[in-house]
Write a structure and sequence with these properties.
7-stranded parallel β-sheet, elongated, D-3-phosphoglycerate dehydrogenase, Rossmann fold, EC 1.1.1.399, binds 3-phosphoglyceric acid, single chain, Alpha-Beta Plaits, 3 domains, binds nicotinamide-adenine-dinucleotide, alpha/beta
Length: 387
């Protein structure tokens, strides 16, 4: 039996895939696995049973990845599962920044008692006129799951699209329309574009990427869209640029006291992934990853351990070991197994940065003393015996 805890509401479409072997618990400290969306986990103390955290979504800046890795907790996310939801809201954001739709709707609400509203609207509407997206230049920073969809969709709307991503994956490059211009530097994109949208993860290297220097390179009346994370933009500098008129609109999915209410800021309450489809997709993927790890030891879409897959546990016993990525770990594992005359049917070892994962199928029972001896090896962080 496995205990799981949901730190945020998780779509039932995902949870209903859990068999009776999975029991929800109200105390996260007792759980084998945690399902989470954006709840902050940096100040949490984890229980010793906790083996997996599955983030039903993309961004993992709410989770202490290094601490989890050290405690033998594998963190998963659901790449691409909510990308379409975000793409659609980014397009809506560009339209809201181009046509004064919000101003127009407010005008109608303010004049709802006006019996002559139809006629008066025809006089009032010139105050809400805007411009079209077709023919404008859009710069997309970060061509991952979301950036690629935004770039391709904007191209189909007739925009001239520039993409910048020095680390673009082969998979994303295949999906990107060949009509997207390759910006060789982010500065080139800042100088060229009328609309700039950022789709990179929040990391030390990307925090404050759009700062006063970046804004100074942009065209006057540029529209900046941020559906990735607030920390990517120096918000004080952005507010100055809105006040001075350099930036026409800052469309952000992240309300903060600095930007909320500022003229020119269009602030949305983190709705990018809040669609039925995205929530269902994320929950299904997160649950699948969590179950496959707990039951079979397979790791898919982890952000702190390597991906590793040996299929379902069959008739053999499977030992899975999370450990530091240092020399001679396999040698020490096989020495313990050989001592007890255990035969290895299959073995896979993968690494990611400072951490590594070893899966070993054994064609006999694994005595608890063997598991204990494996746990006692220096640099081993967690050992589980499955089946
Ligand atoms: N608003 C929302 O509801 C919502 C929903 C999903 C994701 N997000 C945010 O959007 C981010 C991106 O999501 P995704 O699914 O596209 O992720 P992704 O991992 O598929 O893509 C991120 C891309 O950024 C690129 N990148 C990294 N550093 C860069 C840099 N310095 N310059 C240019 N490109 C760089 C990577 O190479 C990668 O291609 C997430 O990390 C998350 O913070 C927000
Ligand atoms: O990173 C993400 O996936 C998004 O920001 C969505 O977050 P949410 O699941 O809290 O809506």
């Amino acid at each position: 039996m496995y205990k799981y805890h949901c730190l945020n509401p998780i779509s039932e479409v995902g949870l209903e895939r859990l068999t009776e072997a999975y029991v929800p618990v109200s105390d996260a400290k007792t759980a084998d696995a945690i399902l989470v969306r954006s709840a902050g986990m940096h100040d949490m103390e984890f229980g010793e049973n906790l083996k997996a955290i599955a983030r039903a979504g993309a961004g993992v800046n709410n989770i202490p990845l290094e601490k989890c890795a050290e405690e033998g907790i594998v963190v998963f996310n659901t790449p691409g599962a909510n990308a379409n939801g975000v793409k659609e809201l980014v397009i809506a954001g560009m339209l809201l920044a181009s046509r004064d739709i919000l101003g127009g709707i407010n005008w109608v609400q303010e004049n709802e008692e006006d019996g002559n509203i139809a006629k008066d609207a025809e006089k009032a509407k010139k105050a809400f006129a805007g411009c079209e997206l077709e023919g404008k230049k859009l710069g997309v920073i970060g061509l991952g799951a979301i950036g690629v969809l935004v770039a391709n969709a904007a191209m189909h709307l007739g925009m001239d699209v520039y993409g910048y991503d020095p680390y673009v994956s082969v998979e994303s490059a295949w999906k990107l329309s060949r009509n997207i211009h390759h910006a060789k530097s982010v500065d080139e994109l800042y100088k060229e574009c009328d609309y700039i949208t950022i789709h990179v993860p929040a990391m030390e290297s990307t925090k404050g990427m759009i700062d006063s220097n970046a804004i100074s390179l942009m065209k006057k009346d540029v529209v900046v869209l941020n559906f990735a994370r607030n920390v990517l933009v120096d918000e004080e500098a952005m507010v100055d640029a809105l006040i001075s008129g350099k930036v026409k609109h800052y469309v952000t999915d992240f309300p903060t006291p600095i930007v909320a209410g500022v003229k020119g800021a269009i602030v949305i309450p983190h709705l990018g992934a809040s669609t039925e489809e995205s929530e269902d997709n994320c929950a299904k993927m997160a649950v699948k990853e969590m179950v496959d790890y707990l039951e079979n030891g397979n790791i898919t879409n982890s952000v702190n351990y390597p991906n590793c897959n040996m299929g379902k546990v069959g008739d053999n016993k499977r030992i899975v070991l999370l450990h530091h990525n240092v020399p001679n770990m396999i040698g020490q594992f096989t020495k313990v197994l050989a001592r007890d005359n255990m035969n290895i049917a299959d073995l896979v070892n993968k690494s990611k940065g400072g951490y590594a994962y070893t899966m070993i199928d054994i064609d006999s029972d694994v005595p608890e003393t063997v598991a204990e001896d494996l746990r006692a090896i220096k640099d081993v962080l967690r050992v589980r015996v499955l089946n």
